[in-house]
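Assemble and predict.
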Amino acid sequence: MKRRFDILRLRVRSLFRRGRVERDLDKELAFHLAQQTEENIARGMSPRAARDTARRALGGYTQIQEECRDMRRTNFIETLAADVRYALRSLRRTPAFTAIVVLTLALSIGANSAIFSAIQGVLLRPLPYPQPDRLVRFYFQSDTQPKFPLNPNDFLDFRQRNGAFESVGAISRRDVQLSGAGEPVMLTSFRVSAGYFHTLGLSPARGREFDAGDERHGQGRSAILSDRLWRTRFSADPAILGRTITLDQEPFAVVGIMPPGAVHPGNNFHAVADGENVDVWCPFDFGDDPNDRGSHYLDGFGRLKPGVSLEQANADLAAVLAQIVREHPGEKGWRVYAEPLFQETVGRTRNMLLMLLGSVALLLLIACVNAANLLLARAGARVREIAVRSALGAGRSRIVRQLLTESLALALAGGALGALLSVGGVRVLVACLPAGFPRASEIHLNAAVFAFTLGVAMLTGMLFGLAPALTASRADLQTSLSGRGTTGGSRQSRLRGALVVGETALACVLLISAGLLLHSFANLLRADPGYRPQQVLTASIALPREQYRDEAKCVAFYQELLARLQNAPGVTAAGAGSDLPWTGYDGNADGYGIEGRPENYQTMARYHIASPDYFRALGIPLVRGHFLGDRDTTNSAPVVVINEAMAKRYWPGEDAVGKRISFADHPQEKDWIRIVGVVRDVKDQPDSTWVRPAFWMAQTQDVQRALYVAVRFTSAPSEAAAEFRRTVRALNPDLALSDVRFMQQIADEAFSGQRFALFLVALFAGLALALATFGIYGVISYSVSRRMPEFGLRMALGARPWDLMRAIVGRGVALAAVGTAMGLIAAIAFGRLLASLLYGVRPSDPITLAAVAAVALTTAAIACYLPARRAAGADPLRSLRSE
Amino acid sequence: MSKPSDLIYGTLDLLILNTLVIEPQHGWAIAKRIQQVSNEVLQVSQGALYPALHRLEQQGWIRADWKVTEGGRDAKVYTLTRAGRVQLQKETEQWNRMSNAVGLVVRMAREASA
């Protein structure tokens, strides 16, 4: 131990008290000389001869000094310090070069850090639950439904009979209205099974979570508050525990308060993006009829027992489902499967993030190649300096080390600036993230991101510094010193050509990606949405059960509201429906019967509800028949409007209007629902590849408390919104409106993923193109300046300026052409990462490829124009004289 | 042994440590002593001595202090540390093993040729 300490002390001393150590060595050697001289005199030599002999015996004085320094092991650091000082001095001498390299590196390193911070927050960091790798989601699945929620009674069976899970939990979204605590407000709320928080590994900061008692049918009047709700609405009063609050006009006892950061795990049915945006949780009421297996609306979670694999869990769930199907044949056709929660959460965005990481990595590579190119040019100009240094005895490795120090210094400066840029970059990135991006709140800069930045910067420095350093150190002493050769020769020029080719190829990959995304985005915008989102205001309303006990009251409310809205100034149509286009709604009704078809006829459709003017308000055109009407009531025969996809799929070549469907197993006359109209198709999402069959039940017949209201207006948007609120308040002042948005906003959000990817990739591609252009310009301009005498001679021999220009532009374009060809090939490989983000464009889209090739070659030609003009202006006389 | 100054590589450390077992010495005296004790067979070149001393010091096996000699000069005197003693023992054992082994090989070669 003491020895280690001594060693450390000595090292530190040799490093920081260098002068003292050196003086000591001098003294020691002087002593040695003196002793030896004395002895020599004693042997009878003259004092002078004695001293000379002693000195000879000691050998090379400086060599001993140097070796002793090496022995102290600090030589390395001292040389490094000297190298760094030298590097900084020489970089300061060429500020333009330094600024360009540092800036381009900073931009690309900053972009890398920003994207990496997203990768780290979303893909690398584990979910914020204990032992998150044991958490899974489970779903039903059928031939028509890839991912389907659970039926409550099915869930109870799974909970009771499974052997693979430590615990399971289920949630279902049901927003509630909070009143009696300030303004009435709609809260994001979930009904959850007992033990749901325990399954996730969360526990309330105060109070308790729901137990079997809360779950009992008809009990369930308890609530757990989120930290945010507790603080904003109940002023963080701990005494709220045990008191009652009013949700949907009913009293609920507060039994628990969750700690801050209790993150919602995300769900599918009536989705709320994962993150901390749930306000209140209430117990789920499983009802009292275990045979009620029809409707599916629960999202299931589970925590695997330690050591249980996903396969085992899936087998276990399948076994339970087999029992359920035996007992309840109605559940036939379903499969069940579990998926890791992590995969489920980030699954959709993994491709996009990896694609972005690939793009910024390419950009960084281009910046590296560019820096290498500039360094090579600089090395060309420094040949004499390097030659002088090696003539003075610097070894090749010493020179390489010196040059590498320079490139590392550049890279680290770029990295430091890049880290600064990434601070802003991450903010912009998070602000631009598409709606509902998972784990967006977990994206920020942290030590890991900075470590990544540092690592990238170091690697970058090595990458772009090595080739130029090796080339420069190989320079021929003789020709360099004689002053004739001012360049590193043809080897260097070949290397620079190769770098430009590489740079162009990489830039092409990015350009093609951007081009494909642009093409795809244009396709999306050009596609007919099937409705008109302009000038439509929307909001969601949920009628509290207490105030609106029976269906008639609900129907009356909506009829009155829509009628008043319809008559409001500036409103052309007002409708209500179960959902709005492009919002991810996935209510389904599969397996309905069609009149005159066999019972096992396979059917599927989205299940919607609409008021008569819903379609007019949203601008969904009628294709055949007529819309739903106010006269369709619970007393009249049930009617439905379907979309074209449904009409074409189940009544191809026929008129669907007048046909009848039914949800009953053995339909009586009253169970048949008549199709009265066919409307234009609207896709689930703008980039959906197909349109699902869909139908709309009449809101007056299939009564719901919670509906979306859509109002088409001609007045100014702010006036329309004010009028809307006024009308609702006049009808019921206690009613909370939520999600008040313009349909255009919703439509824009549906494009936000594509827009986000396009924006970033286009940005990176633009930078890449600029860098590549710069690279071509540098190489051509350098070779022109070298060959000016030759051009002069050629002019003297009769070449026209045009010939010279053509030759030079030709060389640049040739380099770019080779690069573009390589880029096109590479882009096809890269395109696979992109495929999932494309709409109506294949990764090998010939139009995009051709356009990018044209852009790359044109830019190359432009980059060559200036140097070419310089060459064309070569003065024959001057070159003749200089030769 | 045509050139008495040739030292088998790696043995200089052993010789220095061995010399310092008896008493602390300065560099010149160490060289002198090795030369004397080996009957002038081993000659330590000063070019190798001082780097070796510095290396041993950096390893923590010897310690250096400035002392005034009888002649009134400042001399850097090296002392064996406890870690140095352990190291000396290790190196001695290794040396013995090596020289035995080399001796064995040489003897066998001689017997075979005889």
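Confidence is low (pLDDT under 50) at residues 1-6 of chain B.
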